[in-house]
């Protein structure tokens, strides 16, 4: 009797579109609930979470912890997500969220960018940004190790997860910008498989936070941008093979190095299609 051919390990397995939509919905509802609670009962008082944005207006950083809470809830409740992928997603979100909150609350503007933190470290100063980078690398490596048994593969996954979190932070300089980039990946959530569900766990909270972020009432901060970016990166490592992961590392590295030399905001403003997308849905008072 002829045996059926073995299923290819490269083929997406597990939950499909329904699971992704359900996960996104769970994340959105949990994020809205967390945001409502945190804004009514801000831990440590509202002033602790208030910052001045690029336009000189006060904004609340509690959108970040709310997005982390929503992503955690979506990951925990996601239907049929394999155990290791669930654990890796939780590590990525909580790791990026924790070091992001630390940098948001204790960070200093004295050292900016990767080069600024490296200069401070050479002079014996450990900045909050340096702690954040180390934390992203550690949580990314642990997340990668949970889903990849080989050390080299785990390290490659870590680079994508931590790098994606950092790029999301770099984009969070204007209302709605980082969230739009996360939501641009939403079609990938409908492809199915664990990667789609992990991506949905980022897109649901992103959709829930977009109105407040666009209106410059709330701000993701390092906590929210890093956590959602880390999930997008983890989803990419679950969907693509070695070549695709290396392509992500190269692209992320290029963007990171470019950010040390050029302003993403100026580049976006100089390219009409990018400027239109960047300002889409943003009130005139929140533009700049």
Q: How would you sum up this structure, described in words?
A:
This protein is mostly helical and 288 residues long. It has one domain (17-286). The protein is built from 13 helices and 2 strands, in the order H-E-E-H-H-H-H-H-H-H-H-H-H-H-H. The protein has helices at 17-40, 63-77, 83-106, 113-122, 128-147, 151-171, 177-183, 186-189, 193-214, 221-239, 242-259, 264-270, 272-279, and strands at residues 50-52, 58-60. The protein has a two-stranded antiparallel sheet. A hairpin with a 5-residue loop joins strand 1 (50-52) and strand 2. Residues 1-15 have low confidence and may be disordered.
Characterize this entry briefly.
The chain has 13 helices and two strands.
- Main β-sheet, spatial strand arrangement: 1-2
SSE class: mainly alpha
Mean pLDDT: 88
**What characteristic shape results from the CA principal axes?**
globular
Radius of gyration: 19 Å
Helical residues, percent: 55-70%
Which stretches are poorly predicted, pLDDT < 50 over at least 5 residues?
1-15
Q: What is the count of distinct domains? A: 1
Number of β-strand runs? 2
Oligomer: single chain
Question: What topology emerges from the helices and strands here?
Answer:
Elements: H1 17-40, E1 50-52, E2 58-60, H2 63-77, H3 83-106, H4 113-122, H5 128-147, H6 151-171, H7 177-183, H8 186-189, H9 193-214, H10 221-239, H11 242-259, H12 264-270, H13 272-279
Helix pairs in contact: 1-2, 1-9, 2-3, 2-9, 2-10, 3-5, 3-10, 5-6, 6-7, 6-10, 6-11, 7-9, 9-10
